[in-house]
Amino acid sequence: MDIADIRAAMTGDHELTIENYKGIAEYQGDRILVCGKDQKLLVTGCELFIDYYSRFDLHILGRIESLQWLR
Amino acid sequence: MVLRLLRRLFFIEHHLRIEGDHAERFINLCAKNDIQLEEIKRTEENVQAVAIGFCASKIGELADKAGVAVSITKKSGLLYRFLFYRCRIAFYLMPLVILVALWVLSGYIWSIKVSGNRSITTDMLYDYLIEQEWYYGDKISNIMPNEMEEQLRGRFPIITWCNVVVKGTCLMIDIKENELAGAQTGEYLQYNIDGYGNIAALEQGTVASIITRAGIPQCKSGDSVSQGQILVSGEIPIYNNTGDTVIDYRYVAADADIMLQYEISYLDFVSAEVCVKEYTGASKESSFITTQLGEWKIGAQDTPYETFDHYSSCYQLRCMDNFYLPCYYGKIEYLETTFHNIYRDDQQIKDILMEDYADYLEKLKAAGIEVITDEIQYIPGVQGIYLSGHLTICAPGGVFVPMESSVVNDAETE
Predict the structure, then answer these.
(1) What pLDDT score does B408 carry?
(2) For residue A25, what is the nearest residue in chain B, using CA coordinates?
(3) For residue A35, what are the contacts with CB-CB under 8 A and spacing of at least 6?
(4) Is A27–B41 a contact, with Cβ atoms under 8 angstroms apart?
C-alpha cells in the first residue's frame, strides 16, 4: 500500500470511513467524489450524508451502492 | 460517539446554511482550517452543516474565499448558553447559591422520625426532645446520639432498647418498649414496674361473678360494692405454723375476671330543626410552599367562597432519601358549601333516636357488656325529642390499681 493512497473502511453498505484524503471534489445526494494525492474515490448510492468531516477523516452514512477508484 | 456528544454539549454549535456552486470548496477549506463539520447534508437548494467550536468569524472569511453565501441559522451548546447569558450575573450565581444553600442546610436537622413506640406516643417523645432542646432546625453537631439514647432510657423506663442515628438531615429514633410491663401496670412512670397491685371496683354495683387467678378475693358473688373498693388484694399474708399470726406479706399482681352489675343512664336528643350542609360542586385549588421565611400561595385565596370546606395535603421537600429540606409544599382544595334548615316530624325524630340507641347497644355488646334491663322513654322537648332512661348492665368491673413502689419496698425491707 502506498502511503499516499486513500484508505477506506466500510461497515455493511451503510457506513464508510475514509482517511488520507485531500478533500471532496463533489457532493451530491447520490454521489460523493473524494480526492487523494494520486487517485479519486467515487462513492455512489442513495441519500448519502456526511456525518462528520475533518482534516483527517470523513464519515459517510447512507445506502452505499458502489465505490469506484478513478485515476 | 460519547466524545462527540460531550463536545457538542460543551462547545458552541453553529448550524450553517451554505448556498452557492462551490459548497465543496467551502467544506474543504473548513477542514483545512481545523473547523470540524458534522451532519453535512445536501438539499435541493443548499447544503446544511453543523460547525463545532469558536469559528464564527473564520466562517465568514472562508465563505468569501470559497465564493459561497453562508448563514448561521442557529447557535446552541452549553458554552454558547453561558456566553449568551454572560451579562446576567444571577445566571452564574444561581448554581453557586444553590450549592452553598444545600451545604448550609445539610448541617441541620430538618426531620425527626420516631419508630417502634407503642405506649409512648410520638408527641410525648417530641415534647421531651423539645424539653432537652433537641428540635427541628437544631445543628447536627449538637446532636449526641449516645447521650440521647441514655436520656431517653432514663426518662422512659419502659424503653428497653433505643437507637438514635442521624442520616442526612433526618434524626431517626428507633425504640423498643417493654411490652409486658406496659400491659400489666398501664402506667410506667409513677409505679413500680413489677406489677404488684390490687383490683378495685370500677363502679358502684353488685358483684355478678368473680373468678380469681392471683391475689385474695375480698368479695363474693351477690355482694354490693362501692366504687374504688378493693375486690381482689395483691397483698398475701403469710402466717406462722400455728396459722394465727401474720409473719410476712407477699405481693402479687392481683388478677381476676370480675363482672359487676350496675345501672347506667342514657340520654339522647334529636332536634326537629337541623342545618344541613350541601356541596354545590364548585371547587378551587391552590398550591402553597412553606419555608422558614414564610408561606407563599399560588392559586385560590384563603376564602374563595362564603362558606367552604377545605382539604389540604402537605409534603416535605427532600433531595434524597434522608436529605430533608426545611421546605414544605402542598395543595389545598376548597369545596363550596351551602347550608339550609330542614324540619323533621316526630316519627322521623323517633326513628333517628331508635337508630342511635340500637348503635349504642351494639357498641356495648362489642365491648363485652351485657344489658340486663332497660327502661327508656321518649320525652318531648321544646325543640325536639329526648330519649332518656336507665339500663342495668353486667360489665367487667375491676380495674388494676398498682401499689406504689414505696409501699412494696417498705414492706420488703421490714
Answers:
(1) 56
(2) B24
(3) A21, A22, A23, A24, A25
(4) no
Average pLDDT, chain A: 89
| Start-end of CATH 3.10.20.310 domains in chain B | 92-177
Say which CATH topology domain B2-84 has.
Alpha-Beta Plaits (3.30.70)
Q: How many distinct structural domains can be found in chain A? A: 1
What is the biggest distance separating any 2 CA atoms in chain B, rounded to whole angstroms? 133
How far from B171 is each of A19, B109, B111, CA to CA, in Å? Answer: 62, 7, 6
Question: Residue A17: which CATH number?
Answer: 2.60.40.2000
Domain limits, CATH 3.30.70.260, in chain B:
2-84
The Cβ of residue A36 has, within 10 Å, a number of other Cβ atoms equal to 20
SS3 B94: helix
What is the model's pLDDT at position B179? 65
SS3 call for B408: helix
Q: Is B42 on the interface with A (CB under 8 A)?
A: yes
CATH superfamily of B92-177: membrane protein fhac (3.10.20.310)
**What is the DSSP track for B336-388?**
EEEEEEEE--HHHHHHHHHHHHHHHHHHHHHTT-EEEEEEEEEEE-SSEEEEE
Domain that residue A57 falls in: 7-70
Interface contact B38-A23, CB threshold 8 A: no
CA dihedral B337→B343→B345→B350, nearest 10 degrees, is 50
Q: What pLDDT, in 10s, does the model give residues B127-151?
A: 888 888 877 888 888 888 888 888 8
Does the pLDDT of residue B411 top 70, yes or no?
no
Contact by Cβ (8 Å): B251, B408: yes
User: Is A2 domain-assigned?
Assistant: no
| Beta carbons of B223 and B215 less than 8 angstroms apart | no
The pLDDT of residue B352: 93
Verify whether the Cβ–Cβ distance A53 to B34 is below 8 Å: no
Q: Write the pLDDT tens digit of every residue in A10-31.
A: 999 999 999 999 999 999 889 9
Q: The whole model's pTM is what?
A: 0.43
Residue A43 lies inside a defined structural domain of this protein: yes
Q: How confident is the model at residue B279 (pLDDT cuts 50, 70, 90)?
A: very high
- Domain membership of residue A36 (yes or no) is yes
Shortest CA gap B23–chain A (Å): 8
**Domain-embedded: residue A34:** yes
Give the cell for residue B300: 385560590
B220 touches chain A (CB under 8 A): no
Indicate whether this complex's ipTM tops 0.85.
yes
Residue B307 DSSP label? S
Q: What is the DSSP string of B262-296?
A: EEEEEEEEEESEEEEEEEEEEEEEEEEEEETTEEE
Q: What is the distance between the alpha carbons of residues B387 and B266, in angstroms, rounded to a whole number?
A: 8
DSSP classification of residue B394: E
